[in-house]
Amino acid sequence: MVQVDKYYLPPTRLVPNSPQPLLHYKGLFSEGELQPEKIHDILDKNEWKTQWIFRYGPTQTSHYHSRIHETMVVLSGKATIRFGVADTDPDLDKSTWGGAKEEGGIELEAKSGDVFVIPAGVAHKTHDTSPDAEFSLLTPGRGRGIPVSNVRKALANLQLSGYTMMGAYPKNCGDWDFSIGGEDEGNFEISWEIAKPERDPFLGDSPDGLVGQWKAPTRYERINPRTKL
Questions:
Q1: pTM above 0.90, yes or no
Q2: pLDDT exceeds 80 at position 216
Q3: 16, 38, 76, 198: which has the highest count of C-beta atoms within 10 A?
Q4: Is 228 a residue whose pLDDT tops 90?
Q5: What is the edge-to-edge ordering of all strands in the sheet holding 4-9?
């Protein structure tokens, strides 16, 4: 049985968030199953495209993807991920540990084997990673796809260290942007109306995943998403 935790995150002044819930599949993969090339196969079967594997540093800027849904798989290590609010100071120390952030949001522990399915518009910020390591893109390219003839081989040859995650996006839905808050103020419905994928990245057509958990919102729900923890 897959453990599916879901979180409704209302819009803030700077971040659209989404009427669709953030989904967290705790421990979906065992340690022995955390082979990037095999996870890529599952994504590909469900019409999601692997675009990157990053090793994360101690923190990052809070951001959201305004026009595309995202899934992230924790391949190694552990961290805290803050969802739902923008940073209010460009200084990363202040925004991560000094309280320079919008009010609200949630912080979730992320461990190897966990999966997050993130609706377009939902802000996220990974911090307090362990083991300590420097930020690095581990896959070939620039993080917007893996431009090699044999993606499986490239993934199988990676050496993972520190806190690493794999990111994927629905196929044929464009590239991800990196919005830090305020870019879409007054026009949040751009994110709220991004089409629901036909299949969950890992659960396929199961109602346990986004197929069953993401509903078509009413206009009121689009404007006033509710928080449910």
A1: yes
A2: no
A3: 16
A4: no
A5: 4-9, 18-25, 115-118, 70-76, 163-170, 48-56, 136-137
